[in-house]
Write a structure and sequence with these properties.
Two copies of one chain form a homodimer. In chain A, a hairpin with a 2-residue loop joins strand 1 and strand 2. In chain A, the strands form two sheets. In chain A, strands 4-3-5 form a three-stranded mixed β-sheet. The first copy, chain A, has a two-stranded antiparallel ribbon with strand order 1-2. Chain A is 37% helix and 24% strand. The longest helix of chain A is centred in the middle third of the chain and has 13 residues. Chain A is α+β, with helices and mostly antiparallel strands. Chains A and B meet through strand 3, helix 4, strand 5 and helix 5 of A and strand 3, helix 4, strand 5 and helix 5 of B. Chain A binds a DNA duplex (30 and 30 nucleotides) through helix 1 and helix 3.
Chain lengths: 127, 127
DNA sequence: TATAATAACAGTAACGATTATCGTTATTGT
DNA sequence: ACAATAACGATAATCGTTACTGTTATTATA
């Protein structure tokens, strides 16, 4: 079951990679509709699942829905407790966290997720 | 709108604190039904939201549902990618993460969530 | 370059965890 | 006691996501 090319998948990935706002599926859908008027939501969800499963993109659960990041390099995020948006935080990568924690653990550690919670710069000014 | 006592909330919290398996709302519900036969799911969800909002318990999104932890002391977790359960990981607390990351950030950082992904000890043996 | 196999699609129905509503009950301060 | 209201049980509604179905597009092979 190797992957076949599809114009839809390419445009979904292009759209996601060209923006830095970590959209939800719905926000992506609204934007993609302009260039792909009969894109199906099912197609979007299926491709977002494919792309995050194979590590091309990242998926974060924020509030009550998922947000996606086209930048899969190691970096960190803040979820704003006011607007529920997801932001990049600029900081040097923490190394060895997985191995540090794996030392005393009898299972396997594959990866970790470090997310900060707080108030984003925008909300911090306007509140 | 101060909080009034309720027997239901007390028993929900007692049940959650007496176990270490980080149950979902549904798993809690099944167990609580034995001592509170006409507990309503809505009541359970409402109280889990109250208790996690005020910091008494912790809430984690795992797979497609939330899991709860009655131990709100700083400690870390692993989500098993095989069984989707949530486990404690024994490790000394990382301090200063919030302040480290807040240095160059113009918003506010209140807290962080560090979750590891991998295979739990049980699944690691049986696969 | 036809053809066969099948991944992917659009459209739509279904699912399931969670939330909201509403009339009733229990707690709490006066 | 009593009044105010938080919390309850029951149930309907919400909404993000997934599954289904018949059709279309891609890709490897003849």
């Amino acid at each position: 079951m190797s992957m076949k090319y599809s114009r839809q998948r390419e445009m979904i990935l292009n759209n996601l990679c060209s923006r830095t706002d970590h959209p939800t599926a719905d926000e992506l859908y609204i934007d993609l509709k302009e260039s792909l008027p009969n894109l199906s939501l099912g197609t979007l969800y299926r491709n977002l699942a494919l792309l995050s499963d194979n590590g091309t993109i990242l998926k974060f659960h924020c509030g009550n829905s998922d947000r996606f990041d086209g930048n899969n390099n190691l970096h960190y995020h803040l979820i704003c407790e006011n607007c529920n948006r997801l932001y990049d935080i600029d900081h040097a990568p923490l190394t060895n966290l997985n191995t540090m924690f794996a030392e005393d653990y009898k299972g396997k550690i594959n990866s970790h997720l470090l997310v900060f919670y707080g108030i984003c710069e925008d909300c911090n000014c306007s509140v």
